[in-house]
């Protein structure tokens, strides 16, 4: 069984640059925008140059004092705002769309003053904007002068001159105002995903704590009290003590069952011992609809990936039991290159949505945190098909 790769192509593709139409002698809308951009270059460049020159010189001069480095860091943060405004100007007047760079890591995470100070002082985005502001001053004066003269002297060929000059502006903005690299954007995504993983782990720990406190722990406390009373009655009323011990024995069995269920919720033993095929068949047997399970794997992925696959299928089958009103369902698992693919389908009523309150959104978010994909197809009336893709990682050798 194969799945079309386009089904997983959910990430936005980088579109081609929004290039203006070919230049003509006639003064069209794009030409007037380019002329306006070039005329605005000088005042904007002067403001940017004065700001960064003042910030760098004063910050460097005061660096021997306690206020110098914080002043410089604050100035670099302001330089980021200059870059943001220049990206906006390029987008509006030149049709050039430049992605916004990632925010400062320490500032985003709220790690305190000194991490913020250090991150600000070595911020490559801000320093590139400083360089941009220095380079732009002579260029801004030159382009303003050319346009001012051209409006009166070079009118017939002014659209071609404006296009040539703004192409230099476009190249300069791409080189100095774009994010550092695709790696930087990927780091931002991973740090955001890490927050999802941390929140999910914290929620799981709270659930385990609650289950232990309200379940097995409470039962064991009651068991200890019951055995204490039985001990006191052992000599006075052996028959009553025997009844109490018998009740305590039943409580022990229930506590053990609760602990087994809790351990299964953390990581089922059958998954560790026998792999996905047996583990998924086990949870499929508890679904309200008959489930066909097909696992086509010649080797096992990493333990963490197996756990993700197991709990993903478990939650999807629970949704089928609770909401789908299905007569049958199917679970299929296979490997495609370096990805593990899972497809869970049912012939139920359909209409499932990521915002439908069935836990689909949270499941998709958790899968995204591990570089996974989640595709939901569920038209009204059914059938429903959920396709999941997670990275395949080799199982490490066990010693």
Q: If helices are DSSP runs of H or I spanning 4 or more residues, what is the number of helices?
A: 12
Main sheet, how many strands, which sense, barrel? 5 strands, mixed
In angstroms, what separates the terminal alpha carbons? 35 Å
Regions with little confidence, pLDDT below 50 for 5+ residues: 1-17
- Report the C-alpha radius of gyration, rounded: 32 Å
Order of helices and strands: HHHHHHHHHHEHEEHEE
> Which oligomerization state do the chains in this entry correspond to?
single chain
Q: From the helix content, strand content and strand pairing, which structural class follows? A: alpha+beta
Would you mind describing this structure in some detail?
The protein has three domains: 29-180, no CATH class; 191-266, Single alpha-helices involved in coiled-coils or other helix-helix interfaces, CATH 1.20.5; 274-391, Histidine kinase-like ATPase, C-terminal domain (Heat Shock Protein 90, 2-Layer Sandwich), CATH 3.30.565. With 399 residues, it is α+β, with helices and mostly antiparallel strands. A five-stranded mixed β-sheet has the order 1-2-3-5-4. 64% of the residues lie in helices and 9% in strands. The model is unreliable at 1-17 (pLDDT under 50).
């Amino acid at each position: 069984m194969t799945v079309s790769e386009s089904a997983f192509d959910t990430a936005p593709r980088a579109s081609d640059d929004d290039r203006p139409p070919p230049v003509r002698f006639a003064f069209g809308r794009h030409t007037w925008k380019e002329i306006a951009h070039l005329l605005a270059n000088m005042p904007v460049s002067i403001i940017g140059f004065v700001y960064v020159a003042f910030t760098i010189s004063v910050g460097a001069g005061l660096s021997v004092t306690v206020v110098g480095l914080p002043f410089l860091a604050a100035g670099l943060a302001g330089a980021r705002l200059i870059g943001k405004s220049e990206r906006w100007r390029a987008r509006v007047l030149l049709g050039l769309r430049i992605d916004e760079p990632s925010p400062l890591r320490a500032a985003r995470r709220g790690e305190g003053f000194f991490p913020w100070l250090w991150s600000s002082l070595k911020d490559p985005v801000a320093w590139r904007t400083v360089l941009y502001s220095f380079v732009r001053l002579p260029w801004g004066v030159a382009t303003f002068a050319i346009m001012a003269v051209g409006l009166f002297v070079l009118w017939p060929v002014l659209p071609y001159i404006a296009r040539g000059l703004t192409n230099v502006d476009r190249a300069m903005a791409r080189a100095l105002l774009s994010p550092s690299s695709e790696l930087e954007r990927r780091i931002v995504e991973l740090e955001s995903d890490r927050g999802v993983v941390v929140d999910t782990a914290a929620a799981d720990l709270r659930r385990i704590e609650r289950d232990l406190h309200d379940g097995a722990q409470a039962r064991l406390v009651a068991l200890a009290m019951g055995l204490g009373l039985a001990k006191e009655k052992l000599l006075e009323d052996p028959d009553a003590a025997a009844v109490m011990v018998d009740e305590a024995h039943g409580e022990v069995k229930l506590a053990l069952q609760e602990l087994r269920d809790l351990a299964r919720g953390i990581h089922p033993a059958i998954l560790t011992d026998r792999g996905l095929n047996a583990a998924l068949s086990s949870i499929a047997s508890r679904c309200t609809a008959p489930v066909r399970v097909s696992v086509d794997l010649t080797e096992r992925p990493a333990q963490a990936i197996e756990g993700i696959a197991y709990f993903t299928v478990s939650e999807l089958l629970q949704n089928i039991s609770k909401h789908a009103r299905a007569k049958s369902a199917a679970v299929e698992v296979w490997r495609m290159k370096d990805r593990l693919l899972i497809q869970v389908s049912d012939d139920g009523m359909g209409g499932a949505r990521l915002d439908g309150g069935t836990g689909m959104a949270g499941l998709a978010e958790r899968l995204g945190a591990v570089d996974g994909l989640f595709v939901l197809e569920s038209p009204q009336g059914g059938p429903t098909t959920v396709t999941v893709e997670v990275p395949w990682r080799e199982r490490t050798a066990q010693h």
